[in-house]
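RETRY 2/3 - previous attempt timed out on the joint model. Re-submitting the same 648-residue input unchanged.
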Amino acid sequence: MRLPFSDAPSLRVPVTATLVVIAVLAAWWMAATVAADRKLAALGAVPADRGSYRIVLAFAPERFHQLRLQEAGRLVEVRERTVYMMDVTPAALRGIAGEYWVDGVASWDGR
Amino acid sequence: MSPKGRQPLAPPTWLGTLPFLAILVLWWLLPRVMQYPSYMLPPISAIVDFAWESIRDGSLLKNTAASLARLFIGFAIGMALAVPLGLAIALNRYVADMFRPVLSFLQAIAGIAWVPLTIIWFGIGNGSVIFVIANTIFFASLYNTVIGVQSIPTSLYRAVRSHGGSGFALLTNLILPGALVQLLLGVRTSMAYGWRALVASEMIAGSSGLGYMTMEAVQWQRTDVIILGMIVIGLIWMVMDRTLFTAIERRTVMRWGLLQR
Amino acid sequence: MTASVTLPRAATQPLVSRRSARVLRGAAGVLLLLVAWQLSVPLVGLSPYFYPAPSDVVASFADLIRKGILPVYFADSMGRYFAGLAAGALLGVVFGVAIGLNRTVAVTLSPLLKFLFAIVEVAWIPIFVVWFGYGLKTILLALIYVVFFPVLYNTLLGVRTAPQILVNALRSLGATRWQVLRYAILPSALPGIITGLRVGAGFAFRGLVFAEIVAAKSGIGYLIFEGTQTQQTARTIVGMIVMGLTWLAIDLCYLRPLERATIQRWGLTVDAEQRT
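RETRY 2/3 succeeded.
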């Protein structure tokens, strides 16, 4: 496929910049997937439908994190660095586990 | 009647009024055809009523005057600070090299990005708005001053020197006017940024003025106020553009032959 | 520095090349500013709420990255920016070509467009908020609006100044309207389009920050605003710095190369007159 203006050397910078951006996004996505696998493996079996979990962060969650987690399920309680959630689907859980500011995910019996 | 030659007749200028008429007709028709809450699009009569009311009680005039006053104060401060610094940068290579990266960077964040900081420093009101406008105009004028001085032809320098002028004479007779020309050329674009900065900062950090009036009305869902505000903002810019800038352009730039129209 | 006779280095070349000297001076300027800023903090004596120090800003930057806030806000802002820029530019070009090719359309629409452009994009935000609420739709619309007009006007200019000889030549060779468009009009309009894009990109960047301050819950503009609301002014400064660096990156990596590519290619010069 012949890119338009591929004979103009001065377009090298924009094209390179775009490729770099795409590469960074791809790397980010891969790192998130690997991290999610790692954290979920520690969890053990994941229930097929909505479940309750304890999300442990590396710091006390700010409003930003609470909003993000609320997109994944129901936020029940926040205790220091741990967030208790219910009604989290496996897909949403995977999303949370992929975030690098989440230290770990543990199951919770809901009490 | 123009002679019937090969050239097609230019389309008549009254065609330009058609879109406005179309909008007015649609506006009048819409509530009769569709159901929607009246705050979404108030009838034309509501806007006319509010316009009349705000002219009569003087609030429209007060807001407009407040906005324009801030614009010109900010413009003056911005220019006053930019011209000396611009001259220093244009005339001294070492100063230029040192300041250029910092100033290019600061120019990228000129204007609105400073509003939250100004709210902390000056609170809501005139101080914040004027600071943001001055900030915007400062960087635009700085750029224009530097370009202006740099584009003075060397032959003119030589001419002044050959008449025995140097230092102060050089500055007042050659460099300042040269910078001024570019500044005047750039007044239109600087003002475009400045005007946007004015309206935007009044919306966030103002306590009076057109921007404030328009944004405040969102809270009360007074869409008639919003629309009137928008129309006035548009009209004022058009008037400023037509009268002020073209007048300046005609008197200075075209007189001195820099621009042919 | 042209020396056809080789003299000992000391005689012809300075120790540091002229270009590096300028870069060093620039760096020195930045350093001087940072040092002055850091030293002025105890002198000014205000709390970090009013006057954060560079050290506070660096700490805040690290904090924002560690907590995953900055990457997300940055990505959100950039997504909105480029989406709005692309959509606005596309609409601007389409309308610019349509208007430029047809005299009647141009005369009919010009006054309306002039009036709409006079209503600066920031003035549309309140009514967008009323109609579309806070959030992505409003922000995108504001961006599209602000990019549309510069691109439209500059495309129009470019289309109108397409060399008639070229158009006639193509027509006489039996080209269809689309072919004339593609081979004569669009290429000669391209420098104008790129200029319009550059102006629009600048307006859109500032418009993005404004729209995010007013109508967003994430993004760099929101960060700048939120920092002052939550007594974390250092975060505001981080936001401003990220904003500045991002604009420099966009300008250096995309806007300037594109401008150079089209203007170099066709050897046309664009004067500042076209830039509004």
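The first helix of chain B runs from residue 18 to 33. Closing ticket.
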